[in-house]
Design goal:
heterodimer; A: alpha+beta; six-stranded mixed beta barrel; two-stranded antiparallel ribbon; 18 helices; 14 strands; B: alpha/beta; Rossmann fold; six-stranded mixed sheet; 38% helix; binds adenosine-5'-triphosphate; binds magnesium ion
């Protein structure tokens, strides 16, 4: 009873001393607290901006590319050939899996596409073309190109001989709305065959490789033209955001286990399907980590400085504490607790502030052009992917907990040395009158 | 002397404390053998540098001897690790230092209660003891002040209350009156004298103060780290 009470009292004494000492050094405490708060706030906000930026890169990338996940023939990625396509039965299994309730809830877009390398020609000449045969209705949820129409409209489900063409190609082939053009490519029998289509819409994406070569046509026409029927090169799948990709890929691999084992299909996440984009994100992320590391070091030194200074100025006090019967370890605990309290409270305030700032920009987004300057005000281009300068910050609980964890770790580490100093003071020396 | 008293005495045997200064060594305490009985009111006098503080620190376990032994309450101090020494101080020894020995962030009452809190004494009991001792020392009404708002004499009274409230067997006081005017030091000495007579607390002072020496009942004089004379006075 007495012993339990003694323990409880001793813990209380340690807490009271730590709290009062922080309060006594108001200025020093506030200064360090401000540094931690700003650091933590910046960290949360810049993480949200960074993650939002990456999410946007990924989103733009996967929309022009092959989705968050792609289901395709194992050889297609390298060959890009018509013969390496998904057979209709595999496509049916994949689409059935995507239609099961647990996946259907998470999937925001599915696009079955036939990718065709061919030529587009008109009276004005011929140009190489990336022909994408799509289901117009499904593709509308998927592609960004339907938002980039400058003339006419995107494909519709009852379209027959229609083509949606990039502005660059329209100009070089001297086309206009309603113009006819001929697409030629190898069919399933390796014969060169042509298909006449009419321009129903023109888009401007901003990335020259896209504007100069891309043509969308209805999948049904392509099946007749090339003799591929309902076969597709790939099924691209979109989800809400990139954090769901790995579980999506896992589920699809399960559902397609048999054809996967038979080498007839493979399921790739966007990182595998678009390694260049993945490494772009990784490099940028690494850059942020370097900056965060520097920030952590600064915060760490701030805490060490505050806590250590307060130890050095209180030698005599720690001497008195130990003369009165506080053990060296308990004396160290006072110091450690001071550092911990300072870090915990400041971190929570800072994270709260950063989260608030993130929420504030969540609606309208954060205009990177404000920082990056007017030259980038309209469009930013990364490779063949065009990036919107308005960044919607991405808030993630896991990320925030990670940030809190890191700063707390820094706080603990930064308080250990001063705490050790406090445990090791020479009592008799510290009590000397002239101190 | 009862067997219990036997256990409460303080003994040093051939006690040495040698400080190693750059090239020379300083023999702060040289071969001191001494027994202090329970209930003594003893002054340790001697010129500056004669080793008074060092001897008190050795007895209180604040410094470890170079050679020899210190026994307090039947414990051989040199054999105890630091945290056990801290606990021994908590339960057996009260300290009063020359100055600035209150915790600045605590009020007078909290300072006085501090060792009792560490001991686990209940709130009512702590209040009772501090109220009584503050009343005896004329400190009523000042309980909630921080040390910075107390005079030197008031601070020393709080320090003495703190030293005795936790019911130690032994109080070690290093120049407790050095910073006080004569009225304040007389009041403080009255208090300690009273506590000594009423509660049987053992007091050992290191002092230059003639008044303290006069009121002591045993006067030990030190010179160059040795005991030069040891006189029992009739009080
Ligand atoms: N940490 C130390 N390192 C080296 N020498 C020390 C140390 N502490 C004390 N001394 C020396 O030991 C001797 C005794 O010192 P001590 O403080 O015990 O004397 P004192 O009798 O209390 O003196 P005063 O009356 O001035 O307080 C002195 O010569 C002092 O310089
Ligand atoms: Mg001294």
């Amino acid at each position: 009873m007495m012993i339990a009470r003694r323990k409880a009292f001793q813990i209380r004494v340690i807490a009271v001393l730590a709290l009062r000492n922080l309060r006594r050094q108001v200025r020093r405490t506030l200064l360090t607290a401000t540094a931690i708060i700003l650091g933590a706030g910046m960290l949360v906000f810049s993480n949200a901006i960074g993650d939002g930026t990456h999410e946007q890169w990924i989103d733009d990338g996967v929309r022009t590319g092959s989705g968050h996940a792609t289901i395709e023939h194992p050889a297609f990625r390298m060959s890009r050939k018509l013969e390496d396509r998904l057979a209709a039965d595999v496509r049916a299994v994949a689409e059935a899996a995507l239609a099961t309730p647990d996946l259907a809830d998470r999937v925001t877009g599915v696009s079955a596409q036939l990718t065709i390398s061919g030529m587009a020609s008109s009276a004005a000449g011929a140009r190489p073309a990336h022909i994408l045969a799509v289901d117009p209705q499904a593709e509308v949820d998927f592609t960004n190109l339907d938002d980039q129409v400058i003339e006419g409209r995107y494909l519709q489900s009852d379209d027959r001989l229609a083509a949606f063409v990039g502005v660059g190609l329209v100009e070089t082939l001297d086309l206009r709305l309603g113009s006819r053009l001929v697409l030629t490519a190898q069919d399933t029998n390796k014969e060169i065959v042509g298909q006449l289509v009419r321009v129903v819409g023109v888009f401007r994406n901003g990335a020259p490789p896209v504007d100069n070569t891309v043509v969308h046509i209805p999948l049904a026409i392509a099946g007749e033209w090339l003799g591929s029927g309902d076969d597709v090169s790939k099924i691209a799948v979109m989800v809400e955001d990139s954090t769901e990709v790995s579980s999506l890929v896992r589920r699809l691999r399960q559902a397609l286990a048999d054809p996967v084992d038979a080498g007839r299909v493979t399921v790739l996440g966007w990182r595998e399907a678009m390694p260049a984009l993945a490494s772009l994100v990784a490099v940028d992320q690494f850059g942020s980590y370097v900056i965060f590391a520097i920030l952590f070091v600064i915060i760490g030194f701030g805490i060490v400085n505050t806590v250590l200074m307060s130890v050095l100025h209180r030698h005599r006090e720690f001497g008195v504490l130990q003369a009165l019967g506080l053990t060296p370890r308990q004396t160290g605990a006072v110091v450690l607790l001071e550092g911990l309290l300072l870090t915990t409270v400041s971190t929570l305030v800072g994270v709260g502030l950063g989260t608030w700032l993130t929420w504030y920009f969540l609606g309208d987004g954060f205009d990177m052009a404000v920082i990056a300057g007017d030259s980038l005000a309209n469009n930013m281009e990364m490779g063949s992917v065009v990036i919107d300068p308005i960044i919607i910050p991405m808030f993630s609980v896991a990320r925030t907990l990670q940030t809190i964890g890191w700063i707390m770790l820094i706080g603990i580490l930064a308080s250990i040395y001063p705490a050790l100093r406090a445990t090791r003071i020479d009592i008799a020396e510290s009590m000397k009158f002239d101190q | 002397m009862t067997p219990d008293d036997m256990r409460r005495d303080v003994r040093t045997e051939n006690l040495w404390k040698i400080y190693q200064q750059a090239s020379e060594e300083v023999q702060a305490v040289r071969d001191v053998t001494l027994t202090i009985q329970p209930g003594e009111f003893t002054a340790l006098a001697g010129p500056s540098g004669s080793g008074k503080t060092t001897l008190l620190n050795l007895i209180g376990g604040l410094t470890r001897p170079t050679r020899g032994q210190v026994r307090v309450a039947d414990h051989e101090l040199s054999k105890l690790p630091n945290h056990v020494l801290a606990r021994l101080r908590l339960n057996q020894i009260g300290f009063v230092f020359q100055a600035y020995n209150l915790l600045p962030v605590l009020t007078a009452r909290e300072n006085a209660e501090f060792p009792m809190l560490l001991q686990g004494v209940s709130a009512e009991e702590r209040t009772r003891r501090v109220d009584e001792l503050f009343a005896r020392t004329g400190m009523e009404g000042l309980e909630d002040r921080r040390p910075g708002k107390l005079s030197g004499g008031q601070q020393q009274r709080v320090a003495v209350v703190r030293a005795v409230a936790s019911k130690p067997a032994l109080v070690l006081a290093d120049e407790p009156t050095a910073n006080l005017d004569s009225a304040s030091s007389d009041a403080l000495l009255d208090l300690m004298d009273e506590l000594n007579r009423d509660l049987g607390v053992t007091f050992v002072f290191a002092t230059h103060d003639e008044r303290v020496m006069e009121r002591s009942r045993r006067l030990i004089r030190m010179v160059d780290g040795r005991i030069d004379s040891d006189v029992i006075r009739v009080g």
